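Researcher: Here's my situation. A collaborator sent me these components and asked whether they could plausibly form a single complex. I don't have experimental data yet, so a predicted model of the whole assembly would be a useful starting point for our discussion.
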Amino acid sequence: MKKLKIGIIGAGRIGQLHARNAINSNRVELIAISDIYIENLEGTTLAHEVPIITTNSEGIFADPEIDAVFICSSTDTHVDFIKKAANAGKHIFCEKPISMNIQETHSALEVVKKAGVKFQIGFNRRYDKHFRKAYESVRAGKVGTPHIIKITSRDPEAPPESYIKKSGGMFMDMTIHDFDMIRYLSGQEVEEISVKAANLIDDSFLRNDDVDTAIITVTFEDGSLGVIDNSRQAVYGYDQRIEVFGNKGLVTVENEKQTNIQISTKEQVASELPKYFFLERYMDAYVDEVNEFASSILDNTELLCGADDGLKAEALALAAKISANENRTVKLSEINLNSSVKV
Amino acid sequence: MKKLKIGIIGAGRIGQLHARNAINSNRVELIAISDIYIENLEGTTLAHEVPIITTNSEGIFADPEIDAVFICSSTDTHVDFIKKAANAGKHIFCEKPISMNIQETHSALEVVKKAGVKFQIGFNRRYDKHFRKAYESVRAGKVGTPHIIKITSRDPEAPPESYIKKSGGMFMDMTIHDFDMIRYLSGQEVEEISVKAANLIDDSFLRNDDVDTAIITVTFEDGSLGVIDNSRQAVYGYDQRIEVFGNKGLVTVENEKQTNIQISTKEQVASELPKYFFLERYMDAYVDEVNEFASSILDNTELLCGADDGLKAEALALAAKISANENRTVKLSEINLNSSVKV
Amino acid sequence: MKKLKIGIIGAGRIGQLHARNAINSNRVELIAISDIYIENLEGTTLAHEVPIITTNSEGIFADPEIDAVFICSSTDTHVDFIKKAANAGKHIFCEKPISMNIQETHSALEVVKKAGVKFQIGFNRRYDKHFRKAYESVRAGKVGTPHIIKITSRDPEAPPESYIKKSGGMFMDMTIHDFDMIRYLSGQEVEEISVKAANLIDDSFLRNDDVDTAIITVTFEDGSLGVIDNSRQAVYGYDQRIEVFGNKGLVTVENEKQTNIQISTKEQVASELPKYFFLERYMDAYVDEVNEFASSILDNTELLCGADDGLKAEALALAAKISANENRTVKLSEINLNSSVKV
Amino acid sequence: MKKLKIGIIGAGRIGQLHARNAINSNRVELIAISDIYIENLEGTTLAHEVPIITTNSEGIFADPEIDAVFICSSTDTHVDFIKKAANAGKHIFCEKPISMNIQETHSALEVVKKAGVKFQIGFNRRYDKHFRKAYESVRAGKVGTPHIIKITSRDPEAPPESYIKKSGGMFMDMTIHDFDMIRYLSGQEVEEISVKAANLIDDSFLRNDDVDTAIITVTFEDGSLGVIDNSRQAVYGYDQRIEVFGNKGLVTVENEKQTNIQISTKEQVASELPKYFFLERYMDAYVDEVNEFASSILDNTELLCGADDGLKAEALALAAKISANENRTVKLSEINLNSSVKV
């Protein structure tokens, strides 16, 4: 079977994860990995497994053998790398968000469109078997027309303040996955959004003009509703649940527990907590995400989430921020993609 | 054991239910029941069990033997009956809502306060063993300080249009229970409310200037958040779930299934639906509600939900209606209880 | 609606329970209750509610107003009371077991048969909504032909030694309910039985030549299998589960939890224990049991469990005891109902 | 990190599975694979990944580079290969059962013992995260002293008759895993066993003097009890549940569902079936099994299941067959390991 030859830019946690999955995949061949801090790889087994290890990302764009690049570097470098990759005719897999500036994201995607290369955004949750089965059930009409979509999405613990500073804020960093998921499940675009946000966990968010807790309500084109609740700290683990309520029924996805054991004693029936860490929870989804990217190119099939999905989730994150700051409903039509002026 | 002697005004479905529970209770003695359509009782066993059956409610207020009255008549009669009962020195159990007009509700409760009689509002869900256990767990600090309270509250099927016309609207008729529950669970007052409502089920609501689906977000005094989602039609049954998420954990209440059987076949694992009808779901809560009302008077104990709880839930229903109509956040301080002008 | 007029013989725990349910039933009128220790009723509300309270059971048999008697006295009195009741033309509800001696049980039931009165045995679990729904699902063919029926039946705590002494042994006292349930679910008679029993809890059973733990395997007429596991002490509560596995699927009944709350913390997800006490677990079943007995007479409908069911469960208990004692498989055909010699 | 160099004998389904896991493991290096029908590998990716592919197993024993062999060939070849491997000083991983003849198994293991090589038997379920967590909970005293251990173990569908013929019978082929699991969970040896077996599925088992359904009761050294129920055909999927009931509580392991979705409609709440195929259910266990074998040699740690575990499970399978055939309880002491005469 033919393999997709790829280069990975960025050797941090997520870059290394994709590298490992690429090596184990029978649809991908990992040719090169670059990072300006390439010493990150020292002591890892990747150091012995990847043919080209370099600090020079330009070499990856220039390498005629490489079909596609994975952009896993810091967010502020994405737009530049996307444009370079597109101009070099490489297909692109890019981690979320594309950028912190919706107009820049838009401009990068315009270059991608012109170049005619494939572009996949790293919304890994679409590849989760539970959520995908829920999605398929909704599309198959099992619950009829969706009326209310609910997403519970809570991190197990708050990130360090150094991360918060560069995160782009909770909506852009964390809720962006939920924005994508709610669009995916609904099959509709969001028309307006209304956010109530709060600082309830600790001051690290407040000090950085960020929030740690939120309820986000969206109205879709057809008038149906969605609601997301977020927290940066769920002490019982990574809480990732969804619910699609329609005129013919309800589909829910519960958390995956660490194991299925239950212990009944004099005091209670105790079962295990949800998986704690996102890499553990979505381990299989990350594998499938890479394989499906490869298949979409090798077999020329449809992408499950593309450039437009990346752009729209960012627009929602931006609108959410405005809604929270101004304590009002924001229409998505207020977000101007072509203006050089930041909204 | 001493028994509380009561009269019931209103012999409709809910009046008959309380009558039945009063007869079976060892803390209550049902002396009289009145209704202008007293023929409602024909053919029921109550017809033979209640000593006084009358169309004249005045007789109940005048009867010196009667300690307390249950006001179960149509909402537009509540204020008048409350004032009469209070002035007659009777303790009062009143079905929700107290009235459709917050100022009138307020004035009736002023009379109650002056008379010094006990007043319990019919928020039966507080007496449900599941919700009460959740409440007690929250109060005992099991989940720490609440950050997000979520209520899912969906009726199994839409009421007939004749009912919709007189219902006072979804927020006053249905969500009012959820408003009470969210205050009860939080232990905080709501400061502002933001509603997205929709007409997704059928035109019967729209024709009556009402809605059938809503997401309601509230902000409590301490900045914590709450969210209620409502639908007038959940085909799988009466959906009544709650969730209190705090800084030390999460407490949830799932629906009660009709039975605990599960059938696994080639196709699926099938379990039973939630109880369908509210009288079935809250059967035990209705029994406890009456008994605890009696105890609060006989033993002079604290009421679980009183006049203020009735007033505050109504204020929330009114604020919700304004928020939905004007598509904006409404502060509860906007609701003027003393004005003769309707907000 | 016509009511069945009854007398209750025996005013212990179970007699009082039936009395309470009879009083609340709209199909039954409780005329009299007798007990040689009638002072048991002092201080109960029953003392004021039952027209005739007596130490003389003969008066009940002689009372022409009484249609049926409930035999709730100690087991050693059952046979005598059954014969007297039958001879007096009273319908009979009798608590389990009928007697400790299968031949005596058989002789009493012969008298019942000759008298042509109705006879219901107190296997309350058949009236439990969960088990009944499982039964109906099996009969409706939802799981095809049963291959394996499993019953888990464990008491929350061991009875006092004074009870053990008179209990007739675990198989006759406790497993007898499971023997009835396994016949009910199967729809087949048991052909042979094989028991492994043990003393694992404490010496109180051993001292009385009794066991506290057992695995009981049965083979039905059609070759299908059943297995019951018993323990006298499940610290987490009354464990009552069943499972019918057939060629088209599996139906299971899980325990009823005290409430549906779940609490997730750093340590675990904790849910509530099963109901602890048999009267609490089967409260509704006891109500239905009485009402259905009344209906079967008033409306002349089929009994859900009759004389034969009582006899067969006793034969199984006896066979189980032989199997455990002799460490061998016992065929039910070894049990001789007509012999005056105890097997 | 040092890797264990292995050769695999047998390139059927299970041999290929171990080969794939060995290739992906960072503790194992797969040097060679042999099979007399080596054409089995044609068209697989293994064909390009394994350095030595051969029909000559002798070469594997003779290869000084190889540290350990995996014996995955047909059962009738195991004893010969075990002896050869042991005599060549290779550590051994052997699929279950070791042989169909307990005396031959014993003799092979005597050779292993003399050679001083490590020997692991392929009881993959011990490596399942759910069962292992249950085991650890039991060992940690969470449920006190075990009184009853229950295993439900049912295949999703009957094997083809060609497989049945060579399988050694249900107890040796299928129940052997449950025999190992029940010993593992108990921490005790079985003293006696009593089996009721039946032919309820189809005639293919009967024609081959085999059974398809069974209830197996065991008594452990300390008097505690265990029960296994088996079926060759559970239409709803691979049913693998365990339960350890002790004097301080109960630990249960439920099946893993295919996904966590639930769909509530007018008819029911439907959730997904258990995983259907054993390779899918135990996928991770097979990975861990190989890695732990490697670790036990590389780091000289204790094996989780060794030669004795293989022998004892076989003895139980043999005793079960005798019990079923002779319809009696069989003591394990009846099984003579040293006799040349088959029991």
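Model: Some features of this prediction you could bring to your collaborator: The longest helix of chain A spans residues 307-326. Chain A has twelve helices and 15 strands.
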